[in-house]
Design goal:
Blueprint lengths: L10 H10 L29 H35 L29 H7 L24 H4 L2 H12 L5 E5 L4 E5 L2 H11 L2 H23 L3 H16 L8 H10 L12 H25 L1 H19 L1 H23 L1
Antiparallel strand pairs: 1-2
Helix pairs in contact: 2-6, 2-11, 2-12, 3-10, 5-6, 7-11, 7-12, 8-10, 8-11, 9-10
Length: 338
């Protein structure tokens, strides 16, 4: 399979967010890269007419904005429920998960930019950053009252918030299960707001992940993109990095400079510095080849064409999602005002 582009929240991340309550060519050009042409995105979905595309894209945008607003209200109601159960100390709010799925936010690069490459390569070093900074651990408790609570009290809080971890309501996505608590403050709040939870989860998955994943798969089969991948690979070979079929393989290769996928066990300073120099040199070549072959431009064009067609195809579901969220917003407002 070709490089899987940054498709926003993965299934695992999305499921975790729910569980914890957190809540995207005619021929080669002179430089070896593909050219645009009538068939530059052949293999992706057929483009809908402009009016249909605009209408469906607006429905998607409206649903996403409503989901953001209702999500914030849901968090307030969940916190209120926890307070009513006697909990006065709460964990810090989680960092927001970037959304790569909006119509104005086509999938990003797999190859680094020239600036990123020069600064830290791919960030493949053992510290996770490529620049020597301390690794970030998003699961570690930040200093504060929550971090000071005994583990037993944190467990009691988690059970009250999420309910029985073995009793979840789920939607089978075809990629795995997308789940939410059926009990606890989260489960109670969501059932009150959204009603039919399996239906809500299906529509939420479609809007947040399903269409983007499908658009990515379709875009990877477009003629222009396949030619761009081939041109990128040839460019990398000329730069001294042969045998790579996609930018994803380049990232995997960079990790080997440190002794393996995990950067080796306790590599010494000299080994890390040597690995970093090799990583940055390769990343610079990668960035140049991505730009020369117009890899990212062609990816985004094919991806956006497929995604827009999927908005049109799924417009009825997007409208239904809007309706559910609109009703949830009304309910949440009343509950917060009471």
């Amino acid at each position: 399979m070709l490089a899987r582009h940054r498709i926003g929240a993965t299934l695992a991340a999305a499921a975790l967010a729910l569980l914890t309550g957190c809540g995207s060519d005619p021929g080669p050009a002179p430089d070896g890269g593909p050219q645009d042409g009538p068939d530059s995105t052949r293999g992706a979905a057929s483009a809908p007419d402009a009016a249909s595309a605009a209408k469906a894209t607006a429905a998607f945008g409206s649903a996403k904005e409503l989901a953001r607003q209702v999500g914030a209200m849901e968090l307030q109601l969940t916190r209120r429920c926890m307070v009513a159960k006697g909990f006065t100390v709460h964990p810090p709010d989680p960092a927001p998960v970037p959304d790569g799925g909006g119509p104005a936010a086509p999938e990003g690069r797999v190859s680094p930019t020239a600036e990123e490459a020069a600064r830290h390569g791919y960030g493949a070093g053992p510290d996770g950053t490529g620049d020597g900074a301390a690794p970030q651990d998003s699961t570690r408790d930040r200093p504060g009252p929550w971090a000071d609570l005994p583990d037993a009290e944190k467990l009691r809080y988690t059970l009250a918030k999420n309910g029985d971890p073995d009793r979840l309501v789920s939607y089978e996505t075809g990629e795995g299960k997308f789940s939410s608590p059926s009990g606890g403050c989260i489960g109670e709040t969501r059932k009150t707001l959204y009603g039919d939870m399996p239906k809500y989860l299906r529509l939420m998955w479609l809007a947040d992940n399903g269409m983007r994943h499908e658009a990515g798969r379709e875009a990877e089969g477009s003629d222009a993109f396949l030619k761009a991948v081939g041109a990128w690979s040839s460019c990398m070979e000329k730069a001294g990095y042969g045998g790579m079929k996609s930018p994803t393989e380049a990232i995997k290769k960079a990790k080997e400079y440190y002794g393996g996928k995990g950067g080796g066990k306790n590599p010494d300073t000299a080994a890390v510095e040597s690995g970093r120099k090799q990583e940055i040199a390769q990343a610079k070549a990668d960035a140049n080849c991505a730009d020369t072959t117009r890899y990212d431009t062609l990816w985004r064009a094919a991806y956006q064409k497929s995604l827009t067609a999927l908005y049109v195809k799924n417009e009825p579901d997007l409208v239904t999602y809007q309706q559910i969220l609109t009703e949830a917003q009304k309910k949440a407002q009343k509950m917060l005002e009471s």
